[in-house]
Amino acid sequence: MTNSIREIEGMEVIFVIGSNTKETHPVIANRMLKALRKGTRLIVADPRKVPLVRFSEIFLRLKPGTDVALLNGMAHIILKEGLHNDEFINERTEGFEEWKKSIDPFTPQNASKITGIPAENIIKAAKLYGGSRKAGIFYTMGVTQHTHGTDNVNAIANLALLTGNIGREHTGINPLRGQNNVQGACDAGCLPNVYPGYQRVDMPMVKKKFEDTWGVQLSGKEGLKSTEMVESAFKGKLKALYILGENPMLTDPNIEHTRKALDKLEFMVVQDIFLTETAALADVVLPAACFAEKNGTFINTERKVHLVRKAVEPPGDAKEDSWIIAELSGRIGYPMKYSSSEEISEELGSVWPALSGISYSRISAGGIHWPCPTKDHPGTEYLYKAGFPRGKVSFTPVKYVPPAEVTDNDYPFILTTGRNLFQYHGGSMTRRVAPIEKHAGEPYVEINTEDAKKAGIKDGEKIKASSRRGQIEIKARVTDRVSSGVLFIPMHYSEAAANAITTDALDPHAKTPEFKVCAVKIEKIH
User: Fold this and answer.
1) What is the per-residue pLDDT across 301-343, written as a single tens digit (0 to 9) for each?
2) Which CATH number fits domain 178-222+296-372: 3.40.190.170, 3.40.30.10, 1.10.150.20, 3.40.50.740?
3) pLDDT digits 0-9 by tens, 234-251
4) Which of 24, 403, 443, 478 could disulfide-link 496, Cβ–Cβ 3.0 to 4.6 Å?
5) What top-level class would CATH report for the domain 413-524?
6) How is 129-172 classified by DSSP, letter by letter?
7) Does pTM surpass 0.70?
8) CA-CA distance, 241 to 75, in Å (whole number)?
């Protein structure tokens, strides 16, 4: 997030797109509701009538995969109405004129035709967001999990630049992270193209810096992204895989393809707190400690570094992840002689100035937002106050591109996937909690009332949902929460895994799967 969670309550306008915030980020949703009680106005754009919609002033019910058309359409209207921020554009951006030409085709009528949203609603939303200088955009994987996810994010950035709603308090572009420390994992370099602090592996000066720090020679080549690893294993190029805290046999797209890829590996290690579907296939399972069984730091969605303290001892032979990694490293020839998690944290601060001023003693009473470059720095709640690191930042023209897989006579429904309030991600933790399972332990597919009526499907009836990749049997939940022609399946349930039928088409830049759009059909089970 460019801005902090605290600032939500001071925003005039909140624009939520591709995020079921009330169910998947309920703490942040509660902040939004507090803001609404103070007079904030809310726009929600989503294919489903998610719970936050009932609090919204404008609901933009778009067809799955048409985000670029909506965002470009809003930008078109903001320009036409003269609501753009000329001062900000002139002082802080470049490429405006070229980008401006790129949105000419996205009139309200054309945007409406692509998205399915009435043109008047797109106009209202554009005027509301464009008319405020204290507006924030919030999004999650409903924006990124597409073959054009990178384009979606660029279109959001364009909208913020156009109005100058970035670089100031109560504004910003705020992606809500999907897990509790995914921000920290990225910050620490758990990406194939960067070292800690997003320092690129292919830059010679960066490479030398980390070679000097770690006392080894390093490669200047980018590694594979996780989805690329699966494909490389399937082709027989990747021979071994070490998986930490991930369960691709439930969370990867086109699960059967993933299974075949993992079967071709010569050796697979899984490090996790439970025996997941993936761990069950491993040659070696390393039992890890959970969050409450170790010391360290988590960095949350607003870039805030928090201290995590051990509450209980790990069970059995379970060990802290850092201890396991250090042990493995030492046994294959590179000693990692860290005496504590605090020492690891200090090393991160020594190689990345954004963390240099953050110490365990400073965050013992509460977290600090990075960047925090010195020991007396208070931390940074919102980014880019003094300008962008590279000087002027560019507008990025983006075209509307349809999803990789569209409906046809054989597969007439669009399937989109996501989460629900009670279960969490792959369910490796929540599905072991009896009260949660009693309340939300059964998989389901949401079907529009009219679609169910035409197909003769009753609420609670078990049906078959299938795609070009596979099929599942699953209970029907008849509802107007989804539009006609759209289905929704939560991704938590291995016994009717949504990802058995999702497409493994990827964003060409981020290599993120298109979990949010694929073509399926439904049938009664006779």
Assistant:
1) 999 999 999 999 999 999 999 999 999 999 999 999 999 999 9
2) 3.40.50.740
3) 999 999 999 999 999 999
4) 443
5) mainly beta
6) HHT-SSEEEEE-HHHHSSTTHHHHHHHHHHHHHHHT-SSSTT--
7) yes
8) 44
